[in-house]
Amino acid sequence: MPSPRIYLPGSTIGVMGGGQLGRMFAIAARRMGYRVHTFSPDEDTPTGQLADREVAARYDDAEAVRDFARGIDVLTFEFENVPTQTVEWAAEFCEVRPSANVLHICQHRLREKQFLAGAGLPLPRFMPVNSAAELADALTHLGVPAVLKTAAFGYDGKGQRKIERREDPAKVWEEFGGGHAVLEQFVEFEKEVSVIVARGADGQMAAYPVCENLHRNHILDVTVVPAGIDAEVDVQARVLAGEVAEKLGLVGLLAVEMFLLKDGALLINELAPRPHNSGHFSFDASITSQFEQQLRAVCGLPLGSTESLRPAAMVNLLGDLWAKGEPNWAAAAAMPRVKIHLYGKAEPRPGRKMGHLVAFGSSAEEAMHHALDARAALIKAGAPAAKRRAPAKTAR
Predict the structure, then answer these.
(1) Same structural domain for residues 73 and 136?
(2) Which of 194, 251, 290, 394 lies at a CB distance of 3.0 to 4.6 Å from 279, suitable for a disulfide?
(3) What residues are paired with 223 via a beta bridge?
């Protein structure tokens, strides 16, 4: 079997998707001497603002996808909901890492859960649901409370409904909108944690310290590293993440979200075959950021150290912060242990991720306090909203 191909600095990396994950990937890639091309349906995207070339076209535009692939050496992703056909068109002309099969599994909740169950990995009990009758049967088997989730295209809590008591399944199904769904047993967990793991084409793996995650309105709000968990659980979580990456045959980066139960057991919640919001701390707090690690993995370079330099905490900045005017950036910038990251998005909307802050401390708890204090300072005496320019027109 031939050795995996290595793509050295000077190569051109393609990124499907134009959001903030691609933006931070582009920063890491450009720093290491790579060129970056990005493909998404939009113009003047967070990734496109830093890429060497931005292509704005639909994912079902076969001619545009093939033309894009001809100009790159290896293709990777900043979000997993890219149609399989799109990936197959690109694979005619360039290396694709991770593979279309990995994306196919992880972009669909039912396929993902069936893969995990088939691999013998721990996860909450679940049943597929495609009708009101099937929902009624699943509720009988799994009990309540339970969580009804769309099978595809769900993120940040979208497409989810918790069923607290014995409601009328027909009414619940009608309100949910029907379609393909999954009913999942509700888990009483102690903490939500995640592990970012990288796997190279040669099978080498490296996992980051376990992240402890706090959510608000189903959106990640705060990540703290190191997590406040026992050393045994830390090891168990990292080993489990590596098992998932191995069984997937991943080449790239994978985020494994888990529930930590009161008895110390771990159940896998969701997978993301790309950089993850909970790994943003690594941009400032790790020897190798998750974005550089993604680059190293897909290019066939040795993986970097995942060692943390200091305890850190990350807080998300949503569009809600702009409700009373431009946030007071000077207040956060004046805090010596705080780093500001903004994504270049033109329109702040409630719930939209506009940026994040990373703060450091002598402990994870102290770092979290610094991060929360800095975010609170942003909404004190904020300036009037700045006039934002219209997106530039970019030729394909």
Answers:
(1) no
(2) 290
(3) 213, 314
CATH number assigned to the domain comprising residue 358: 3.30.470.20
Contact 197, 238 (CB under 8 A): yes
Note the Cα 170 to chain centre separation in Å.
Answer: 33
Would you say how long the chain is, in residues? 396
Residues 209 and 358 in one domain: yes
| 341-to-12, 47, 283 alpha-carbon distances in Å | 25, 14, 10
Dihedral sign, CA of 28, 353, 16, 275? positive
266 Cβ contact list (under 8 Å, min separation 6): 122, 193, 233, 236, 237, 240, 258, 259, 260
The total domain count for the chain is: 3
* CA 356 to each of CA 287, 317, 325, 343, 391: distance values in angstroms, whole numbers, following the listed order: 19, 5, 18, 9, 22
* Host domain of residue 201: 189-378
> What is the distance of C-alpha 74 from the center of its chain?
20
pLDDT tens digit sequence for 51-86: 999 999 999 999 999 999 999 999 999 999 999 999
Separation of alpha carbons 56 and 58, rounded Å: 7
Whether 298 contacts 74, CB under 8 Å: yes
Residues 215-225 have pLDDT tens digits of 998 899 999 99
Task: Identify whether 116 is part of a domain.
Answer: no
pTM summary value: 0.93
Q: Which helix (H) or strand (E) holds 351?
A: none
Collapsing DSSP states into helix, strand and coil, what is residue 332? Answer: helix
Do residues 111 and 104 make contact, with C-beta atoms less than 8 angstroms apart? yes
3-state secondary structure of 252: strand
**Exposed, middle or buried: residue 345 (CB in 10 Å: 0-12, 13-18, 19+)?**
buried
